[in-house]
């Protein structure tokens, strides 16, 4: 094989030629470095043996070799080895510089030629240069030996073989030549086998029933792939894709693939950027599926084998369509479908309102019923239902609540056996139904309470009205007697007026209760002068307290200023205090009743009513605020007339004003009712800070 790549571009060289070029470059570069260092050493330390011309020529020849290699001219670099005889003459035989005697440098010459033989045996494209270099070497050594006047000495029969330069040179030649022949024989054998393999591959490609296309990689000087070219397609490829070999061979692979496969395949991605051994494609214009198996027989070629997988893929596609159809159908049903295995692990699910429930596939599939938010007790119950359903082939039902970021939802779950290892679970959202049931139950309770309240109200009202009505009717009948003295007429007139006031009070309480129940209490916020209001209340109840029972009735004002007041609803505040004062007078037979207010802080005012009456048991504290309630078991409380609405109304009015009515009481010692209100925009009150 002759050297035939002078003036070639690197992209045109094979991998073997590139490797050869690289190795030659490194060897010549190392030789140049050694030559330069030797030259500098002689120049500085051994000028007595310096041959300026020889060293410069040696360095120049090595630079020339590197220049040839830079231009991809390996033959030029290899042929420079034939300049060795001239260097030997300059270093060891010439007369223009001082050098050692000729007989001392014979073996130096020998080693120069042995190195040259090894160099040529490795890099020379053929053996002719090796033979030529051997001849030149022998001639040069003969000349050197003759000049040293040692030719008879080396031709003598007594000469030791290893000291004979001719024999050593011939031995070196035979050795490197034999090694060269051995490796060439091995390479030929490998090349033959490779060629046979390529032929077998080509034959398989041609006769294969599967469409096959063979592609060549086109690379740049750095070995990077720049393009792909089609070099062969088989008959099956032509028949399958309705294209002739002549139309695609030699064309760029990207163009061919885009034309044949309608831009379905990106060759850069398939062969260069992200090469895969197997790729599945669907060709819509042929309505077929193909699996592309990609083989890389060597670094420069690609073989693609197309397998028609339309049959299995059509079945898979049909199954996917069926599954999608059923999934859409299931999604149209407002139920959640789960597949749960016997260990309680979710295998699949279909949910329509995933966004409402904030449920994702990753949060469900693969997780067990113990990991998706159920309590341990509920998860155990569901697990037992799964086991019962599989074992007994039964349908199990269970209701549960599920907490989600959008609130709590109620579900009814039914589980049915799917196979021996799993169940299908249908969970229906019953939140609206349960809420309706709860609301219906609450409405029922409220209706019953209202009915009971109405019955109690009517019974209580009829009872309470009877007393003042009897007083009115009896007094009216007596007043009708003509001979009735004037003093008695005045007494019975006052009785009628008192009974009338009692009836009006009951009517007012009924109206207030109606407003509270219907949330129609009219709140009017105004500036209330507290002291004048409290004095008015005192004037209203002082005659009653001292006239009927001789009670010690007192008012206590915490702030004396006449301008003292704050913004609230005067009517509601007055009515609340009136109910508490009236209640205290009613249940206090002896002792005292004290009412008033005090400033707890500059922003909070407390109103209170204290008495020394019969008191309230602690277990009745919550009951006294119920409508029409009277403390049972206490004859003193039961015998007093009243609608039982005073405290409930007072509590509701205080709540509307922003306060809370509280009680402190002990049986036989009296009670204290109090409530606090915010002192909004108060006037006439100032605390002195010290």
Describe the structure.
- With 690 residues, this protein is an alpha+beta fold.
- The protein is built from 22 helices and 17 strands.
- It has a 5-stranded antiparallel sheet, with helices on both faces. The chain has a 5-stranded antiparallel sheet with strand order 7-6-10-9-8, sandwiched between helices.
- The N and C termini lie far apart (119 Å).
- The N terminus is likely disordered.
List the helices and strands and how they pair.
Elements: H1 15-45, H2 52-70, H3 74-79, H4 84-93, H5 106-123, H6 128-147, H7 151-155, H8 165-207, E1 212-219, E2 225-233, H9 235-241, H10 245-248, H11 253-261, H12 267-273, E3 278-283, E4 288-298, E5 301-308, H13 310-332, E6 335-341, E7 346-350, H14 354-357, H15 361-364, H16 376-392, E8 396-404, E9 407-419, E10 422-429, H17 431-479, H18 486-517, E11 526-529, H19 530-548, E12 552-556, E13 565-568, H20 570-586, E14 592-601, E15 604-611, H21 635-638, H22 646-656, E16 662-666, E17 670-678
Parallel strand pairs: 12-14
Antiparallel strand pairs: 1-2, 1-5, 3-4, 4-5, 6-7, 6-10, 8-9, 9-10, 11-13, 14-15, 15-17, 16-17
Helix pairs in contact: 1-2, 5-6, 5-8, 6-8, 17-18, 18-22, 19-20, 20-22
Task: Record keyword descriptors for this entry.
alpha+beta, 22 helices, disordered N terminus, 690 residues
Bin the strand percentage. Answer: 15-25%
- The end-to-end distance, rounded to whole angstroms, is 119 Å
Mean pLDDT: 80
Based on secondary structure, the structural category is: alpha+beta
